[in-house]
Amino acid sequence: MLKSLLILRHAKSSWDEPGLADIDRPLNKRGKRDAPHIGFLLREEGIVPDLILCSPALRARKTAEAVAENCGFEGEIEIQDSFYPGHPADYLEVVGHLPDQYLCVMVVGHNPGLEELLTTLTDESVALPTAALAQISLPIHTWRDLTDEVTGKLVNLWLVKRSI
Description:
Blueprint: E1 3-9, H1 29-45, E2 51-54, H2 58-71, E3 77-79, H3 88-95, E4 104-109, H4 113-122, E5 133-138, E6 153-158
Parallel strand pairs: 1-4, 2-3, 2-4
Antiparallel strand pairs: 1-5, 5-6
Helix pairs in contact: 1-2, 3-4
């Protein structure tokens, strides 16, 4: 079976507490609304990741938790310290060492690393605003074959609709 990678940028975070360390910034009101929406969207699409890997940043963890709860994911979200701030090589290193039992893996993290990862894996330059989710089909049967030389296909890109 071919592998599928879901790339999710964390939902909108709060800047209300200027003295708070970046890694500890929570979701703001919009982020708390958007994150569950992505989970519902995945459920509607019939896509439930086999594994969710997440940055240790609070905003990313809260995004991953809301998505997991609302898409029907029943596993444990695995925190990956290297996903903060997260360069494409960090994501490739972690995902490239996964057991092959996982067919669909979601990574939750930050820009610019996630946009660069998407470009690396698809040769497409796509903006990932907060709470954006990209689905990439990878032409590999084993995760250890995932390198920056692999060219996958951007299957879907979901952006949360903004209400004005």
